[in-house]
């Protein structure tokens, strides 16, 4: 999912830099946006599932193998794929309704969905509804799940008597937690920030953080 997610943005960016051309066709833009959203959403959903996995491993170690069985893993994976496809197609359906744009220049190095919404001549209320609805479903609720998992994890880790045991338990979460902070922090900032006030320079730096660095 990470490789596919980065591959929707990075090759086009490299070609743009090498050819000094920043032009993309409308269909090319929609295609890039569709795949970008699908894999970005899948990444977000999988990070949430991983938080749940760590919660079970640390807080309920004796029941872990029973709860997190192969059947549940497959079901969670299919759910991630389904939500990702739904989100991608929702954005595409909205984007295909656009008949006019205030400008043809996107203030980013790829076809960012919030930027495409921002440039359309659509009613501001509709654009805000789409932005915040998707932001809540894919940003707010998964983050709540991750925060809840980590509150329980920290509570369980603090109950461990040995310092070595605490370090070992926390080390299993540190890499996941750092990626969650970097991915969600920058992605939500760019996506929701575009509907309020947008700085192209800051937007591109933040986009680079969650599309390439993570």
UniProtKB/TrEMBL annotation:
Pfam families: 7tm_1. GO terms for molecular function: G protein-coupled receptor activity; olfactory receptor activity. It is found in: Cell membrane. GO terms for cellular component: plasma membrane. It comes from the Eukaryota. The keyword Transmembrane applies. Residues 1-214 form the G-protein coupled receptors family 1 profile domain. It is a multi-pass membrane protein. This is Olfactory receptor family 7. The lineage of its organism: Eukaryota, Metazoa, Chordata, Craniata, Vertebrata.
């Amino acid at each position: 999912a990470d490789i596919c997610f980065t591959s929707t943005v990075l090759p086009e960016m490299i070609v743009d830099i090498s050819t000094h051309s920043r032009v993309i066709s409308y269909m090319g833009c929609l295609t890039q946006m569709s795949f970008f959203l699908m894999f970005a959403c899948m990444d977000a959903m999988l990070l949430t599932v991983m938080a749940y996995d760590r919660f079970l491993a640390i807080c309920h170690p004796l029941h872990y193998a029973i709860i997190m069985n192969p059947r549940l893993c497959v079901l969670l994976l299919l759910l991630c794929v389904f939500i990702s496809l739904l989100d991608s197609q929702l954005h595409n359906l909205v984007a295909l309704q656009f008949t006019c744009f205030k400008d043809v220049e996107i203030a980013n190095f790829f076809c960012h969905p919030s930027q495409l919404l921002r440039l359309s001549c659509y009613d501001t209320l509709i654009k805000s509804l789409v932005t915040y609805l998707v932001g809540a479903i894919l940003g707010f609720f998964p983050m709540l799940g991750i925060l809840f998992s980590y509150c329980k994890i920290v509570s369980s880790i603090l109950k461990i008597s040995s310092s070595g045991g605490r370090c070992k338990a926390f080390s299993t979460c540190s890499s996941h937690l750092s990626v969650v902070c970097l991915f969600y922090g920058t992605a939500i900032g760019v996506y929701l920030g575009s509907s309020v006030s947008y700085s192209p320079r800051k937007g591109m730096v933040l986009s680079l953080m969650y599309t390439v660095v993570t």
